[in-house]
Design goal:
Helices cover 65% and strands 9% of the residues. The protein is of the alpha+beta class. It folds into two domains: 182 residues, no CATH class; 130 residues, Histidine kinase-like ATPase, C-terminal domain (Heat Shock Protein 90). Strands 1-2-3-5-4 form a five-stranded mixed beta sheet, covered by helices on one side. α10 links the parallel β1 and β2. α2 runs antiparallel to α3, α7 packs antiparallel against α8 and α10 runs antiparallel to α11. The two termini are 54 Å apart. About 2% of the residues have low confidence.
Length: 401
């Protein structure tokens, strides 16, 4: 790091130490020489100088007190006629500090007092610089105005420098606040993105695993009973179990490969509405009678994500049929393209609101369906039917462009 940057950082982090050092330097250079001279006439100069220099130690920690003491000593000099001292220039430092760190009213009040005090001081002590005294008016007034102009310009320069420092400091603080706010917002966005991704992964894992395991469990139960009466049917059922397990394993490997960022992971397309028939076929092999009706044609194509959502709704609904509806269940899947979007209805005549306690879950499937469909401004309802059975209804509107 450059030396000037280190110094600037030190100044920002040690303001009190800097003020003490400044006061000591002024005392050593402009006050101690008069005290060391031992002249009686300089005792007042030393006292006045010390009175205006020492308060600089608190010029930022107790700004108004420090400025008040220095202003009071300067006004007292004018009233009592005590001559200005070399250390009097600390008034400019105080004026800068008021403009940079003080309240606005104190900054403007200090500027007004310094301007008026300078004009009065030049009148009161003008003879020290050859103004007034025995000089003629024609000579004194122009000289007074010239000196007054430079003194007032010096006062305005000190105040303006402090005001610019205030503006710069506030801009720097605003940038720091904005940086902190952006960091907080960025962290919140990361947290929200991570939560959304975890939810997405949970839905995918549930859809893949729950459906495959439901088919496997149903087929395994059937194979167990068929092994004694119809060995050939049992062998066929075990083949279905193996095929379902391999398909589920492929899906899991693909999902985990994507999560790891594996470039060699399978990138085959995700299921769409065209894959519903394959899904129904796998359910039929589990002994569930499933029919599918397609009504109407899409007014406009659904996004691939919406088609995946529709597929997952059908998959989850059929999974619930396998898990809860019981044996000898008939299910009907209806895909209806209307004027506003796609309507999905899955009806079964199973046990409805009285699922098997051994297979009852935690409702994650319904929650996952609802979350998926809401992403496309759709709706989902799932409830037992009045005459028995269970019905799942979902609606996915066309994407507005």
């Amino acid at each position: 790091m450059d030396i000037h940057l280190r110094f600037a950082r030190w100044v920002r982090t040690h303001p009190g130490t800097l003020d003490v050092c400044l006061a000591l330097v002024i005392l050593v250079l402009l006050v101690l020489p008069f005290a060391a001279s031992g002249t009686d006439g300089y005792a007042g100069v030393v006292a006045t100088s010390a009175a205006v220099v020492v308060p600089l130690i608190w010029r930022r920690s107790r700004l108004l007190l420090s400025a008040g003491i220095i202003a009071g000593v300067s006004v007292l000099q004018l009233v009592l006629g005590i001559q200005p001292v070399p250390a009097q220039f600390v008034v400019l430092i105080t004026l800068y500090t008021l403009a940079a760190y003080g309240p606005r009213w104190a900054s403007l009040g200090g500027l007004t007092l310094a301007l008026v005090g300078s004009a009065v001081g030049l009148v009161r002590f003008g003879d020290l610089i050859g103004i007034g005294g025995t000089a003629s008016v024609l000579t004194s007034v122009p000289l007074y105005l010239i000196v007054l102009f430079f003194v007032e310009a010096l006062v305005l320069l000190a105040w303006t420098t402090g005001d610019l420092a205030r503006a710069r400091r506030r801009t720097y603080q605003a940038l720091e606040d904005r940086t902190r706010r952006l960091e907080v917002e960025r962290q919140q966005e990361r947290d929200l993105a991570a939560a959304d991704e975890r939810s997405h992964i949970a839905r995918e894992m549930h859809d893949i695993v729950a459906h495959s395991l439901s088919v496997i469990i149903t087929q395994a139960d059937g194979a167990r009973y068929a092994s004694a009466q119809a060995p050939d049917l049992a062998v066929q059922t075990l083949g279905t179990i193996a095929e379902t397990g391999r398909g589920s394993l492929r899906e899991m490997r693909r999902l985990l490969g994507v999560l790891r960022g594996d470039e060699t992971a399978s990138t085959r397309p995700l299921p769409t509405l065209d894959d519903v028939d394959s899904l129904l076929q796998s359910v039929r092999r589990s002994g569930v009678r499933v029919a599918c009706r397609r009504i109407g044609t899409p007014r406009k194509p659904l996004p691939l994500g919406a088609e995946l959502t529709a597929y997952r709704v059908v998959q989850e609904s059929l999974t619930n049929v396998l898990k809860h509806a019981g044996a000898h269940t008939t299910t009907e899947v209806t895909l209806e393209f209307g004027a506003r979007g796609l309507g999905i209805t899955v009806d079964d005549d199973g046990r409805g609101a009285a699922p098997d306690p051994a297979t009852a879950g935690t409702g994650q499937g319904i929650i996952g369906m609802t979350e998926r469909v809401r992403l496309y401004d759709g709706t989902v309802s799932a409830a037992p039917r009045t005459g028995g059975g269970y019905r799942v209804e979902a609606f996915i509107p066309y994407t507005q462009t």
